[in-house]
Request: fold
Amino acid sequence: MKQTYPFDLMPLPYDYDALEPYMDVETLHYHHDKHLKTYVDNLNTLLKDQPLYQSWTLEELLTRLDELPEELRQPVMNNAGGVYNHHLFFETMHTPVNENPMEPYLQKAFGSYENFVKSMSDHALSQFGSGYAWLVINPDHQLEILNTPNQNNPISNGNIPLLCVDVWEHAYYLKYKNLRKDYVTNWFHLINWQEVFQKAKKYC
Reply:
């Protein structure tokens, strides 16, 4: 995510029907083409007259929030977070291969893969309103699961995001209606663990 202003709408790294039957084509079109595009457009509008920050990457915008003018901080956090969070969400999904190179690390951190699934699910389901559940490398260089509201991103608190599940209603409502639990359960079928591992091994 080294792109800087003006930010582009990242194309999906797979076809719109690639996540069937767990995530439908209509949801992906709306989620990617409408919702993500809105965050990209809003972020570009915020930075249009701010040349001092146009060379900053998404990571820099989210980790250096305190260096922004006060009136820009919350809007940049909302919209740069919206772009970063969606990029990670889409990048770490696809019909995965059977092998999970992260499993030994998950077992070490959480006791078992099943414990990881339960904790990640609990965090996703307990997030009140909109937000995300995350697998991160925390500042102590340990795997940790946490959740954030709205488009907040754990990178702003010194964590390294590896994986996230979007629990905003627009991520699942067209297919699952109010059944967030069913959506989260099925999301585990879509995790591209090879992609997550490639991110993690840079830091582990």
